Amino acid sequence: MILKRIWLKDFRSYSNFKIDNFSSNVTLVTGENGKGKTNLIEAIYYISNLNSFRFSSRESLIKNGSKVSFIRAEITNGERELLIESEISLLGRDKTLINKQKIIRNKEIRNYFKTIVFSNSDIEIVKNGPSYRRNFLDDLMIDLYPKMIPVKLELEKILKHRSKLLKTISYKSGKEELDTLDIWNQKLSEVGELIVKTRKEVLTILQPELEKSFYQLSFNEKKLQIEYISSWEGRLIDALQKTQKEDLLKGITSVGPHRDDLSIKINNLFSRDQVSQGQQRIIAISLKLASHKVIKKQLSLSPLLLLDDVFSELDEIRSKKLLENLPSSQTIITAAQIPSNIFSEVPIINLNIIGN
Ligand SMILES: Nc1ncnc2c1ncn2[C@@H]1O[C@H](COP(=O)(O)OP(=O)(O)O)[C@@H](O)[C@H]1O
Ligand SMILES: [Mg+2]
Fold first, then answer.
1. The predicted structure's pLDDT at residue 27
2. Dihedral angle, C-alpha 337, 338, 342, 348, nearest 10 °
3. Which of 156, 217, 227, 325 is the most buried (most CB within 10 A)?
4. pLDDT over 70 at 355, yes or no
5. Which ligand is located closest to the Cα atom of residue 312?
6. 196-246: per-residue pLDDT in tens?
7. Where are the domains of the chain?
8. CA dihedral 140, 121, 73, 339 (to 10 degrees)
9. What separation in Å is there between the alpha carbon of 58 and the centre of ligand 1?
10. CB of 33 closer than 6 angstroms to any ligand 1 atom
């Protein structure tokens, strides 16, 4: 996938901005702090996900003082030429057209245009709670198996219904209510088992690539282990029945795919709290590079790779290693400072000169 042209109107700090000279290999985007490097990466991310990787409101994407923001991008996907046009509106509805056709579900956009992004917030996947790791794995799962999109939506629906029911049932409730709970247990166990089975398949594909990526970046010195941590043992339906009494007291579903986690260790140390910040960052970068490799291999297409501020906190040797091990696909890297010696051959877009 090649991004040929992007045009931003009233997006974040940009009033009217166009770039049409991205290389089909690596392009470095540079500029002082606050020049709009992350904003540019965010705009490209937006048109491939229809949301942002920053934990900010959609209103914050619209330039201060404006009411509507436009992103327009021309992409080549194999033989296909795509024009993606997105409108983010303060008052009206957001809208996205692909070759002038409306898309129905936001998640569908990734069937047309796939990006893999590393940004500073990805360190949360390593450091923060289990939901960050589940979301990472589920995003990759959906890329590899788009059929899982409705299954995931179904899971959310079931969990919502079940927890509502748990809150209304009390010791006074009769057989009828408990029978209804049984039906939801059955539904949850079917959908839950399928999601976990698919997640584990994805993890099996990801694992060797992740180990390789980490090994390359950590300078061949440390070994990474990743493992799926299930919130129950045996069959989910049995586990739900076993925890039902407690669930009724608490009004929550305490076992299921929404409670699972990934354990990531380096040389047997927990990456969440037993390794350095630098190592956590290298794990997060490796997770993204490995996802890129897996998608490329499994789907025979190259997502656009976006690396925002990836060299900050990496020493020169690791920065060099990263560049040597980049996949052969279009890659956009931002950096406030151009790391010395390592960027001699790469085209540079300087936002200090062309930004607005
Ligand atoms: N909605 C907005 N309207 C106007 N300016 C914004 C908006 N959102 C962010 N900015 C500004 O964009 C500037 C550039 O941000 P950013 O892309 O993060 O810079 P950097 O080049 O350091 O990555 C910041 O000064 C920020 O205040
Ligand atoms: Mg930035």
1. 95
2. 150
3. 217
4. no
5. 2
6. 999 999 999 999 999 999 999 987 667 899 999 999 999 999 999 999 999
7. 1-114+303-356, 119-300
8. -110
9. 14
10. yes
